[in-house]
Design brief:
This protein has 578 residues and is an alpha+beta fold. The chain folds into 3 domains: 3-65 and 289-351 and 490-535, FAD/NAD(P)-binding domain; 73-126 and 260-264 and 357-474, 2-Layer Sandwich (D-Amino Acid Oxidase, Chain A, domain 2), CATH 3.30.9; 148-251 and 559-566, no CATH class. It is 32% helix and 18% strand. A hairpin with a 5-residue loop joins strand 12 and strand 13. Helix 2 runs parallel beside helix 16 (517-535).
Length: 578
C-alpha cells in the first residue's frame, strides 16, 4: 500500500473499521434502513449512491484498500518523484459509449470541487482505427461521419451493405451477407432473440467458417476486441443487440452523447475519487481491507456476514439489507447450501464462465504519434485494443506523473490470453509478465510503424496478473458471455428477502448486457430499486433505469417477426432456414 493511499483512505477505513475489534458494524439505525454493500466496484458504488440519496445508512465493504473495482486506476508503485504522482495505468480502455445511458446519468450527479460534475471530465474520441499488418490497409474511421439510416428490412440491408463494403473493403457478396445477418438481428422480435438467438453462437451465425480471413478477423474476432466476447461461444443475441446499439449510436439515434468518450485524466482521479467523496458527503461509510467470506442465513433472511478485517481477524457485519456487489466467481463462493436451497438461481451461477481481459500500460519517452483514438488491432493474435490515453488528459503528463522523463501513456487491453503470440510462441497466460510486455509491444509494432522498435523501459501490467510457480494467475477475471448464459444469470432481487445483487452478471434490460461499466451501473440501480421495494420506502422517488433505444421505423418489422415466431416460422430474412 502506498503512503498516498494510506493518507487518502486511512481516515475512512479507520472510521468504518474498529481497529482491534472482532466485529465490523454499520452505525445503529432505525426503521430497517441499514444497508451493507459488499464490494466497491461500479455496481456497489451505484447502489450505495442511490440508497444514500434516499436516506438509507450505507456501509460499503471492500477487500482492496481503494474503491473502484475494475474501474480503478492502477498506479505503478514508487515511480513518482519530485512531487509527481506515481505513473497511472488502467484496467481497460475505459470507453463511455454514446449508447450508454445509466452510467452518464450517474456521472452527472457527482459534483466536482469548484463546480461542474464528473460528466464534464469526459473527453470525446473522434477516431477509431482498424490497424492492419501484412500489407493490409489500415483504416482510420471518423466517428462523426457514419450515418446508416434505419428503415424497413430491405432498405436496412442496402444501407448496411454500403456502409460495410465502403469502410471495410470486404468482397461484395460477404458485405451483402453480413448486412443481411445484421438486419435480421435488428428486426427480430424479443421472443426470437431470447428463444432462438440466445442459443446460437456468433461465429456460426455469421457463417465465418466459409468466409475470407479478413471477414473472420473483422467480424468474428472483432466482437472479442470490443468486449472480450469470444466469437465461437458468445450469444448471437448479445452480439446482435450490441451491434444494433453501436449502429444506432453512429447514426446519432438515441445517443446520450458522442459515440466514444474517455476520461480526461486517470479514471480514479477523474471519477472514482470524486464519487467516493460525494458518497461520504451523503453519509456513506467505507470499510477497506475487509474480505467477506460467508453469509449467514436464518429464517429465510441473511442474519449477518462473516468477514475478515484488515488485520486478518474475524469480523461480523450486521445490517438490515445486504447487497452482494462482487464478481460472479467470488459471489458463487458466498452461496452455501442453505442459500442455494433458498434460491436455486444462486446455484445456477456456477455455470457462468470467466475469461481474462486485462490491461498493460507503456510509458513512452516521447509522444507516440499514433491516431488520437481507440485502435483496434484486427490481426493481433491477442486481440489488442490500444489508446494513447494521456493524449486526452488535461494535466501535462511529464510534469504530473512519473519522474519527468515519460511523455505519454499508451494503454493496451489484452482480450485473448489463449492464442500463441508470434514472438515467444506462447499464449499470454503461459508467459512471464516480462514476456507479456515484449509480446504485446511486438504485436503493436507490427501495426503501428510510428512506435519505437524496442519496448520502453517503463511498463506496468495489471497488478491482478501475478506469477506463481512459473504460471500467471489472475485475481480479476472477466465475466464471459456464452450461449444460453442468460438462463444462468439472476435478477437483482433474490428469493432471500434481504439479499440483493449488484454486479455485471445480474440480468440487465437495456440494449447491452455484456460485462461493462454500463451494465454494472444498471445492476446497481436495480439492486437499489429492489431494496426500496422490499423496505416499502418511498422517500426520494423511484430509482430510474434507462432502456435502450429502438428505432421506431423497425417496429413494424419486429411485429411481423413476432407473428412469424408465434407460427413457428423463421425470420423472413433467414434464407438458410426457409
Amino acid at each position: 500500500m502506498r503512503r498516498r493511499d494510506v493518507l487518502r483512505y486511512g481516515a475512512v477505513a479507520a472510521g468504518a473499521v474498529g481497529v482491534g475489534l472482532p466485529a465490523i458494524r454499520p452505525a445503529a439505525a432505525r426503521d430497517q434502513r441499514r444497508v451493507a454493500v459488499l464490494g466497491a466496484g461500479v455496481g456497489g458504488l451505484t447502489a450505495a449512491h442511490e440508497l444514500a440519496e434516499r436516506g438509507f445508512e450505507v456501509t460499503v465493504y471492500e477487500r482492496r484498500l481503494v474503491p473502484g473495482g475494475k474501474a480503478r486506476t492502477l498506479y505503478a508503485p514508487r515511480t513518482g518523484t519530485g512531487g509527481r504522482r506515481d505513473l497511472p495505468g488502467e484496467h481497460g480502455h475505459r470507453a463511455v459509449f454514446g449508447f450508454y445511458h445509466n452510467l452518464p446519468d450517474t456521472l452527472r450527479r457527482i459534483p466536482l470541487p469548484g463546480g461542474g460534475t464528473v460528466h464534464d471530465n469526459l473527453a470525446t474520441v473522434e477516431w477509431i482505427e482498424l490497424a492492419r499488418n501484412g500489407g493490409r490497409l489500415t483504416t482510420p474511421i471518423p466517428l462523426r461521419d457514419w450515418k446508416p439510416a434505419p428503415g424497413d428490412a430491405g432498405s436496412l440491408v442496402t444501407s448496411l451493405t454500403g456502409l460495410i463494403g465502403e469502410n471495410l473493403r470486404l468482397p461484395p457478396w460477404e458485405s451483402a451477407f453480413l448486412a443481411k445477418q445484421f438486419a435480421m438481428q435488428f428486426t427480430s422480435c424479443t421472443e426470437r432473440r431470447f428463444g432462438q438467438w440466445e442459443y446460437v453462437d456468433w461465429w456460426r451465425y455469421i457463417q465465418a467458417d466459409r468466409m475470407s480471413q479478413d471477414y473472420q478477423r473483422l467480424w468474428g474476432g472483432g466482437v472479442q476486441i470490443l468486449q472480450a466476447l469470444k466469437p465461437r461461444t458468445a450469444s448471437t443475441r448479445t452480439c446482435g443487440q450490441g451491434f444494433e446499439a453501436i449502429f444506432c449510436d453512429l447514426a446519432g439515434r438515441g445517443s446520450d452523447g458522442p459515440v466514444d468518450r474517455i476520461f480526461n485524466g486517470p479514471t480514479s482521479e477523474a471519477w472514482i475519487e470524486p464519487w467516493a467523496a460525494h458518497l461520504r458527503s451523503l453519509g456513506v461509510r467505507f470499510a477497506f481491507g475487509c474480505s467477506v467470506e460467508k453469509l449467514r442465513l436464518h429464517q429465510g433472511r441473511v442474519e449477518a456476514a462473516a468477514a475478515r478485517g484488515p488485520d486478518g481477524r474475524p469480523a461480523r457485519i450486521d445490517a438490515d439489507w445486504f447487497i452482494a456487489a462482487v464478481p460472479a466467481d467470488r459471489a458463487s463462493r458466498l452461496w452455501d447450501s442453505a442459500l442455494r436451497a433458498a434460491d436455486p438461481r444462486l446455484g445456477a451461477m456456477d455455470g457462468l464462465q470467466q475469461t481474462w481481459c486485462n490491461g498493460i500500460q507503456f510509458f513512452l519517452p516521447r509522444p507516440s504519434g499514433v491516431v488520437r483514438g481507440h485502435i483496434e488491432h484486427v490481426d493481433s493474435p491477442w486481440k489488442l485494443v490500444s489508446v494513447p490515453q494521456s493524449a486526452f488528459w488535461r494535466a501535462p503528463f511529464a510534469r504530473t506523473w512519473g519522474d519527468g522523463t515519460e511523455q505519454e501513456s499508451l494503454s493496451v487491453v489484452i482480450s485473448d490470453w489463449e492464442t500463441p503470440g508470434p514472438l515467444h510462441g506462447k499464449p499470454a497466460r503461459n508467459c512471464t509478465r516480462a514476456e507479456v510486455a515484449q509480446e504485446v509491444w511486438a504485436q503493436l509494432k507490427a501495426d503501428l510503424k510510428e512506435l519505437d522498435k524496442a519496448p520502453p523501459d517503463r511498463w506496468y501490467l495489471d497488478e491482478a496478473i501475478t506469477e506463481q510457480g512459473g504460471q500467471l494467475r489472475n485475481d480479476d477475471t472477466f465475466l464471459m458471455n456464452t450461449t444460453g448464459s442468460w438462463d444462468l444469470r439472476p435478477e437483482a432481487a433474490t428469493a432471500v428477502g434481504n439479499l440483493f445483487l449488484a454486479a455485471d452478471y445480474v440480468r440487465t434490460h437495456s440494449n447491452v448486457d455484456f460485462a461493462s461499466m454500463e451494465t454494472a451501473n444498471e445492476a446497481g440501480r436495480r439492486a437499489a430499486a429492489a431494496v426500496l421495494a422490499a423496505a416499502g420506502a418511498a422517500r426520494g422517488g423511484a430509482v430510474r433505469t434507462f432502456q435502450g433505444y429502438e428505432p421506431p421505423e423497425l417496429a413494424p418489422a419486429k411485429d411481423q417477426d413476432r407473428e412469424r415466431w408465434r407460427r413457428g416460422l423463421p425470420h423472413i430474412l433467414d434464407t438458410e432456414r426457409r
